[in-house]
């Protein structure tokens, strides 16, 4: 006989109670380990999904413009690229919208890929199985499902027509921004054949179209050119770390080595008859940065430069003689004339102009005459403006030498290649009626030779734009022209960094793995909300352990009587506790896997709105399982052994008689009372303090909520213990009722009663707190300070809209004019426009952490309205406080760009706070630092960051036009407005949704998360009910002789039921009060910040459920009390 | 302990009060007596007179409010808790009215329970078997208490009380729950084993026959102990 034998006997003999303890431990372990498994499963699922959709892609090289297809092979052969990468594939990757021709169903935001056999080989797919005829496409399963499309169905795929010339420059093609392809579905590609290919992680349905590369190149007028090169990973299991950084550096070095000037949109052209060569841009304008590089490169080679800005003016005229549509070159006048005076004619203050002889004759002017010049300017806001100025003729030169140079003008699409003037097709209106026969004669003979020349500075002032103020830069070498030009090409290429002028090297694989960690740490949130469930399970285990120990008090007494020191008795019961914890943990590990699988199933089905994908599955992580098990087991062991401590003060005599200290009348120690009261008050103060501190800043709201809530619960439970322990010295002050007998029973075992109260309080806490966070939508949507800003509709477009629909010409250009007339669908409707830099969704709809979020540009007009509300800002001045949108114009010494984001996205998706920075293009040489200056309160802007428009055009010049709109329309007419806009602007992919529905979609995610957590609260309620029922039943069984006596003296079944119910009610309502009160205090800061307002109805309903469940717990006990043969108990020992 | 060695149990001016919400409740007042090794004493008295309390005070289970209890001059209540437990384990044997056997252990294991305090003792098992044989239950070594009658359980309790060869054997209504025949058997065993071990035997009982078998007889009434030996 050894102690171990005694322990084994104890555990097996009292197997029923011990089983309940082990199950309680098992539940705690299952919940804790299960929560960690959920977190690791979500992360693993997201990672698997992202890597599956990437296929063999490691790094993606994109370009603002289209580049040579052969760049892919050249990249692979450059330097160490072939050692670091498995292969390269050139593709076209653009966004489009797709219409199912037969049904008219549309899908926007579709990924359109132009691919050939190199793409399929790249991914290890036999290209013979994925052959596509010219007018056929593959589609992804998600797109086919959304369009309800099948093989051979026709699709209309519309994509943006790329243009090197910005659409918001004079020669930008604003009205012809897209191309539509009619294609038939060849096959629906499964994920295994890269049907879901995507190099940006997103968990929603993959909506992709695969078009033959040559087909889309032709449609986009980019034959032999692509905008994306994929570099393949050698080790598919590798996903990041130092290797990824090295590979990124290798790819960047390769781009720098092989990109040509053509790839960068630059050209060096030899102009033999002028003995010069010229640097030109495909955009038509050379920006200031590139001009500076050209200049420094030329100086290094000791070559003189002659910058030129040539512009098409509407007319030059004097008096009634007008010369229409003429080219004017702004340059150093000394090149074409001997005139040497400065910028302005010193006699008149008017800028000088040198005319060629033809122009002077045509206008009948001589030196000294003043000309009026009229020209178009395209304003960024989206309108064509006519401006004019006067010029004074200072010289007339023959059309020869430098003055006879048609190459001074850049290539103007629609103009340069025209056979005659009437064949011109510029992107702005011209009056062909003004063209005279002599103009056609000039065109035939001299083509784009400028008719007039002005000083460069004058030209820059008149016609310079944010795109640049030069159309070309002439270089005049001294040596051999061709040799010098070739050398200059190489020097210029070396001086221009491709990564600074439009190339982006994107470490897709590494970023996908990083983003898979998730915007929302599921594991952590499940642990937070499972916390009280774990506590409930541990309380239940402790309760049953306590019940078991109380059942064996006499046994403990005899051990003490026979000389067992308390420490040895501790060891025996401690060993039992450890064994039960281990057994419970084994149960818990198995249950954890089942629990986690159930949660994952729930996320795929009931709670699909929270995650937006059915692709989440259980991944059993040994680390998560081990951590949860160890934590749960430790917590169980500690809580069980703490139960033992409460019994140790009992004397051996008390133990022998089966009475614990708490159930015997003892002299009430005032010091003990004082300590308990002080403890309760201190915990209350600490709890409230924690909640307040979290509300004002230093602590996170989550810590404030859970920590403060826990402390407050402990405070109330301590108070309950004090109250129950201080049994009344007199029975009542009035009549002695049966129900008061029930209440008194609850005070006989204060420890048990407090445990029951704690169980109910824990469940009530979670249920009440979670329900109070529930967001309702709809109310107050027209309020300018609401989450919709008072706007009723929100629209996105695929193709940028340059025209301003608030102007007559804009409406005319957009074919909306008639809709704005009285009685039209757009009467009194206003559209507020935003430029957009596409990127990842930064809202809670995206499970992946957004590394490259969307950015919207806020116009000054929008900012001045002061719409929407803010939860936090960096406002300092009264103006900023009054309208935090003004913060977008704050200047920072370090060059950071001020940005505004939604508070929910900041906290839960981007993990930032007001004052923090978000760095775009983080891993490049050109990072852009956005500084959060304000946080919007529950707004429709949860998907993006917002910056001022002037900052946007400076840091993102390549994103032209407007692609996001907020629409003010009467709520009753939103349907008509949406239909009208979608119809007339279909070519732009104009997609309108209700602003309220957009906001509700964000709320739906949040509410679904809350529903998930409320389920955990429900589980806690089940545990609490079970524990309460067990205690009541145990109390009845212990008091069978008492109840038998009551029956003997005339109490009937109804009286006994009332006694049981009264005890139940006291514990239940005490728990309910404690849990509800603590929850309301803990959520108060969040509740106030959301504008107050509790969902009273749903809260009340939930509390009723808790009450009903709690009363059902007494059913078993009541049945035993009423039905068991209690009178027999009177006769037995 | 060496058989025959002189042992003195001395109780001097022993008093005991319990604290209640209504004030101190006196149970025993100024009780004194002395017993030598081999002596037997019975204590009778009305219910609630404090007989069991006196027994617990003597046995080191509960400290007195005032007065002393010494065994060979050693006052157990001056010992630290750990040594007090050792004192009870080695010097005192208890037999209670409710046998208080561990239901999960066999007869042999129940008798060996006190030996678990000091660790494995190779002679303990033999001694236990011997004691069980002396109380007439050797064939029931592996049986559980649920399989024994009331009298048999009390005999096992008696064997357990003697396993450590205590100097003082305290019995609280050892036959209170037994029928006459079982009571007689247990009583006889009690005295027989007491004689062999020369321990001090103190019995609290309502059984006058049992009481009168003791050399010294006391009555506890009104918080005071009086000798009633004729």
Features:
heterodimer; A: 1133 residues; alpha+beta; 10-stranded mixed sheet; 6-stranded mixed barrel; 36 helices; 28 strands; elongated; B: 230 residues; alpha/beta; 6-stranded mixed sheet; 3-stranded antiparallel sheet; 7 helices; 32% helix
Q: Could you give a quick summary of the protein structure above?
A:
The complex is a heterodimer of chains A (1133) and B (230). Chain A has 1133 residues and is α+β, with helices and mostly antiparallel strands.
Descriptive account of the structure:
The complex is a heterodimer of chains A (1133) and B (230). Chain A is α+β, with helices and mostly antiparallel strands. Chain A is 46% helix and 19% strand. In chain A, the strands form 3 sheets. In chain A, strands 19, 20, 21, 22, 23, 24, 25, 26, 27 and 28 form a 10-stranded mixed β-sheet that branches. A 6-stranded mixed beta barrel of chain A has the order 2-3-7-4-6-5. Chain A has a 6-stranded mixed barrel with strand order 11-12-16-13-15-14. Residues 664-668 and 729-735 of chain A have low confidence and may be disordered. Chain B is an alpha/beta fold. Chain B has helices spanning 51-58, 81-91, 107-112, 122-134, 150-162, 180-197, 208-212; strands spanning 8-20, 23-36, 40-44, 66-71, 92-95, 168-172, 200-204, 216-221, 224-227. In chain B, strands 5-6-7-3-8-9 form a 6-stranded mixed β-sheet. In chain B, strands 2-1-4 form a 3-stranded antiparallel β-sheet, covered by helices on one side. In chain B, strand 1 (8-20) and strand 2 (23-36) form a beta hairpin. The mean pLDDT of chain B is 88.
Layout: helices, strands, pairs:
The complex is a heterodimer of chains A (1133) and B (230).
Chain A: H1 3-13, H2 15-54, E1 57-68, H3 71-77, H4 81-84, E2 85-100, E3 106-115, H5 117-122, E4 136-140, H6 141-147, E5 154-160, E6 178-189, E7 208-212, H7 213-219, E8 225-233, H8 241-258, E9 266-271, E10 276-281, H9 288-300, E11 304-318, E12 321-331, E13 352-356, H10 357-363, E14 370-379, E15 383-397, H11 437-446, E16 452-455, H12 456-463, E17 472-476, H13 481-495, E18 503-506, H14 508-515, H15 522-551, H16 553-561, H17 566-604, H18 608-611, H19 622-647, H20 652-656, H21 670-696, H22 701-725, H23 738-746, H24 750-772, E19 793-801, H25 808-813, E20 830-837, E21 854-858, H26 860-865, E22 870-873, H27 878-882, E23 897-902, H28 903-909, E24 917-920, E25 928-936, E26 944-948, H29 949-955, E27 962-968, H30 974-984, E28 991-994, H31 995-1038, H32 1040-1048, H33 1053-1089, H34 1096-1112, H35 1114-1123, H36 1126-1131
Parallel strand pairs in A: 3-7, 4-6, 12-16, 13-15, 21-26, 23-25
Antiparallel strand pairs in A: 1-8, 1-18, 2-3, 2-5, 2-8, 4-7, 5-6, 9-10, 10-17, 11-12, 11-14, 11-17, 13-16, 14-15, 19-27, 19-28, 20-21, 20-27, 22-25, 23-26, 24-25
Chain B: E1 8-20, E2 23-36, E3 40-44, H1 51-58, E4 66-71, H2 81-91, E5 92-95, H3 107-112, H4 122-134, H5 150-162, E6 168-172, H6 180-197, E7 200-204, H7 208-212, E8 216-221, E9 224-227
Parallel strand pairs in B: 3-7, 3-8, 5-6, 6-7
Antiparallel strand pairs in B: 1-2, 1-4, 8-9
Helix pairs in contact in B: 4-5, 5-6
């Amino acid at each position: 006989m050894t102690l171990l034998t005694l322990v084994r006997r104890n555990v097996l003999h009292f197997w029923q109670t011990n089983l309940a303890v082990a199950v309680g431990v098992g539940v705690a372990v299952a919940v804790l380990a299960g929560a960690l498994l959920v977190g690791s499963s979500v992360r693993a699922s997201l990672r698997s999904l992202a890597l599956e959709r990437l296929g063999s892609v490691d790094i993606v090289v994109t370009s603002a413009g289209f580049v040579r297809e052969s760049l892919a092979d050249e990249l692979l052969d450059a330097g160490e690229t072939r050692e670091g990468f498995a292969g390269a594939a050139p593709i076209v990757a653009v966004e489009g919208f797709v219409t199912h021709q037969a049904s008219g169903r549309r899908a926007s935001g579709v990924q359109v890929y132009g691919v050939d056999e190199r793409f399929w080989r790249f991914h290890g797919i036999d290209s013979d199985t994925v052959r596509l005829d010219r007018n056929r496409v593959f589609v992804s399963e998600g797109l086919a499902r959304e369009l309800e499309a099948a093989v051979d169905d026709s699709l209309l795929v519309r994509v943006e027509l790329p243009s090197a010339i910005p659409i918001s420059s004079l020669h930008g093609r604003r009205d012809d921004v897209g191309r539509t392809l009619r294609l038939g579905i060849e096959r629906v590609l499964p994920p295994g054949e890269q049907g879901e290919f995507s190099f940006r992680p997103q968990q929603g349905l993959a909506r992709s179209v695969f078009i033959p590369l040559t087909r889309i190149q032709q449609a986009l007028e980019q034959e032999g050119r692509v905008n994306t090169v994929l570099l393949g990973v050698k080790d598919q299991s590798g996903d990041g770390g130092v290797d990824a950084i090295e590979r990124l550096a290798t790819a960047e070095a390769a781009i720098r080595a092989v990109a040509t000037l053509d790839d960068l949109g630059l050209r060096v052209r030899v102009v033999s008859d002028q003995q010069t060569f010229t640097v030109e841009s495909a955009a038509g304008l050379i920006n200031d940065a590139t001009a500076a590089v050209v200049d420094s490169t030329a100086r290094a080679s000791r070559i003189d430069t002659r910058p030129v800005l040539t512009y098409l003016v509407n007319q030059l005229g004097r008096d009634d003689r007008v010369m229409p549509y003429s080219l004017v070159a702004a340059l150093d006048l000394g090149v074409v004339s001997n005139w040497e005076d400065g910028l302005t004619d010193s006699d008149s203050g008017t800028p000088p102009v040198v005319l060629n002889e033809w122009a002077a004759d045509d206008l009948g002017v001589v030196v000294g005459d003043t000309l009026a010049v009229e020209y178009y300017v395209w304003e960024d806001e989206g309108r064509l403006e006519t401006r004019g100025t006067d010029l004074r003729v200072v010289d007339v030169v023959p059309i020869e030498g430098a003055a006879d140079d048609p190459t001074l003008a850049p290539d103007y699409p629609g103009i340069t290649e025209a056979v005659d003037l009437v064949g011109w097709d510029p992107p702005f209106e011209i009056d062909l009626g003004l063209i005279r026969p002599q103009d056609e004669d000039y065109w035939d003979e001299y083509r784009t030779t400028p008719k007039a020349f002005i000083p460069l500075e004058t030209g820059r002032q008149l016609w310079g734009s944010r795109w640049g103020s030069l159309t070309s830069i002439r270089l005049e070498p001294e040596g051999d022209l061709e040799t010098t030009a070739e050398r200059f090409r190489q020097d210029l290429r070396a001086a221009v960094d491709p990564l600074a002028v439009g190339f982006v090297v994107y470490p897709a694989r590494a970023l996908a793995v990083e983003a898979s960690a998730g915007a929302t740490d599921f594991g952590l949130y499940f642990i937070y909300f499972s916390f009280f469930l774990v506590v409930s399970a541990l309380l239940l285990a402790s309760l049953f352990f306590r019940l078991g120990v109380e059942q064996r008090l006499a046994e403990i007494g005899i051990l003490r009587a026979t000389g067992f020191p308390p420490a040895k008795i501790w060891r025996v019961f401690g060993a039992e506790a450890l064994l039960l914890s281990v057994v419970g943990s084994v149960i818990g590990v198995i249950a954890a896997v089942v629990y986690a699988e159930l949660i994952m199933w729930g996320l795929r089905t009931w709670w699909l709105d929270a995650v937006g994908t059915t692709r989440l599955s259980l991944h059993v992580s040994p680390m998560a399982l081990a951590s949860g098990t160890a934590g749960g087991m430790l917590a169980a062991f500690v809580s069980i052994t703490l139960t033992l401590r409460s019994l140790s003060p009992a004397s051996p005599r008390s133990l022998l008689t089966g009475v614990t200290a708490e159930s015997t009348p003892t002299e009430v120690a005032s010091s003990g009372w004082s300590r308990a009261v002080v403890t309760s008050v201190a915990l209350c103060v600490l709890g409230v303090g924690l909640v307040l501190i979290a509300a004002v800043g230093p602590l996170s709201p989550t810590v404030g909520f859970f920590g403060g809530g826990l402390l407050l619960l402990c405070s109330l439970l301590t108070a309950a213990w004090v109250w129950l322990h201080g049994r009344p010295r007199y029975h009542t002050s009035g009549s002695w009722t049966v129900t008061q007998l029930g209440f008194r029973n609850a005070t006989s075992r204060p420890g048990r009663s407090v445990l029951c109260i704690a169980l109910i309080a824990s469940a009530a806490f979670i249920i009440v707190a979670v329900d109070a966070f529930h967001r309702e939508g709809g109310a107050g949507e027209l309020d300018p300070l609401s989450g919709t800003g008072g706007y009723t509709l929100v629209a996105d477009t695929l193709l940028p809209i340059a025209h301003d629909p608030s102007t007559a010409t804009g409406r005319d250009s957009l074919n909306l004019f008639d809709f704005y007339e009285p009685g039209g669908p757009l009467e009194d409707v206003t559209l507020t426009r935003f430029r957009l830099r596409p990127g990842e969704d930064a809202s809670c709809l995206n499970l992946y952490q957004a590394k490259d979020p969307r950015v919207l540009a806020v116009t000054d007009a929008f900012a001045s309205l002061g719409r929407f509300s803010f939860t936090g800002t960096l406002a300092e001045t009264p103006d900023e406080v009054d309208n935090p949108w003004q913060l977008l114009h704050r200047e920072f010494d370090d060059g950071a760009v001020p940005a505004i984001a939604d508070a929910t996205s900041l906290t839960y998706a981007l993990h930032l706070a007001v004052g923090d920075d978000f760095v775009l293009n983080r891993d490049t040489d050109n990072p852009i630092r956005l500084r959060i200056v304000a946080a919007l309160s529950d707004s429709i802007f949860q998907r993006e960051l917002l910056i001022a428009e002037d900052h946007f055009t400076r840091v993102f010049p390549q994103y032209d036009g407007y692609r996001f709109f907020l629409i003010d329309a009467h709520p009753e007419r939103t349907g008509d407005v949406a239909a009208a806009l979608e119809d007339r602007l279909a070519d732009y992919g104009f997609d309108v949704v209700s602003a309220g529905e957009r906001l509700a979609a964000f709320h739906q995610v949040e509410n679904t998360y809350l529903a998930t957590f409320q389920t955990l609260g429900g589980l806690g309620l089940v545990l609490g009910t079970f524990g309460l029922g067990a205690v009541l039943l145990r109390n009845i069984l212990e008091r069978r002789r008492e109840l038998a006596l009551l029956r003997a003296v005339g109490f009937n079944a109804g009286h006994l039921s009332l006694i049981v119910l009264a005890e139940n009610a006291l514990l239940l309502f005490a728990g309910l009060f404690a849990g509800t009160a603590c929850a309301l205090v803990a959520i108060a800061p969040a509740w106030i910040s959301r504008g107050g307002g509790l969902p009273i109805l749903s809260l009340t309903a939930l509390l009723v459920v808790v009450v009903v469940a709690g009363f059902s717990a007494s059913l078993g006990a009541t049945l035993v009390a009423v039905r068991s043969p209690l009178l027999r108990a009177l006769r037995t020992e | 302990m060496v058989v025959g060695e002189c042992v003195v149990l001395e109780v001097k001016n022993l008093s005991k009060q319990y604290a209640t919400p209504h004030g101190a409740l006196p149970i025993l007042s100024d009780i004194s007596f002395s017993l030598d090794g081999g002596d037997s004493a019975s204590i009778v008295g009305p219910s609630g007179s404090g007989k069991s309390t006196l027994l617990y005070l003597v046995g080191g289970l509960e400290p007195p409010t005032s007065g002393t209890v010494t065994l060979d001059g050693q006052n157990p209540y001056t010992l630290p808790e750990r040594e007090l437990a050792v004192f009870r384990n080695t010097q005192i044997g208890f037999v209670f009215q409710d046998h208080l056997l561990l239901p999960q252990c066999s007869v042999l294991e129940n008798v060996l329970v006190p030996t678990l305090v000091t660790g494995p003792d190779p002679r303990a098992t033999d001694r236990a078997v011997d004691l069980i044989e002396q109380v007439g239950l050797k064939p029931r070594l592996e049986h559980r208490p649920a399989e024994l009658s009331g009298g048999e359980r009390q005999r096992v309790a008696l064997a357990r009380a003697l396993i450590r060869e205590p100097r003082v054997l305290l019995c609280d209504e050892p036959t209170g729950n037994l029928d006459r025949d079982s009571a007689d058997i247990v009583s006889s065993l009690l005295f027989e084993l007491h004689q062999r071990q020369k321990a001090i035997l103190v019995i609290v009982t309502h059984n006058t026959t049992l009481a009168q078998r003791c050399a010294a007889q006391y009555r506890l009434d009104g918080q005071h102990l009086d000798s009633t030996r004729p």
